[in-house]
């Protein structure tokens, strides 16, 4: 089963390597962008929370 799956996964590589390579690069870029956006939003949220906490402490 596993070997068949591996063959099935490798078949497109031999079929059209360049096209698959371009698709893979695009896919990887999309994934990286999504990760970057998620991390950025997390940092922004943390920063806002930190600033909010500081302001509340100052007000007290």
Automatic annotation (TrEMBL):
Keyword line: Membrane, Transmembrane, Transmembrane helix
TM spans (from-to): 20-49
Keyword flag Membrane: yes
Protein name: Uncharacterized protein
Highest taxon of the lineage: Eukaryota
């Amino acid at each position: 089963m596993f070997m068949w799956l591996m063959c099935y996964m490798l078949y497109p590589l031999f079929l059209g390597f360049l096209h698959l390579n371009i698709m893979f690069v695009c896919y990887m870029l999309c994934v990286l962008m999504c990760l970057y956006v998620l991390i950025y939003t997390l940092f922004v949220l943390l920063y806002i929370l930190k600033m909010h906490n500081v302001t509340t402490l100052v007000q007290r």
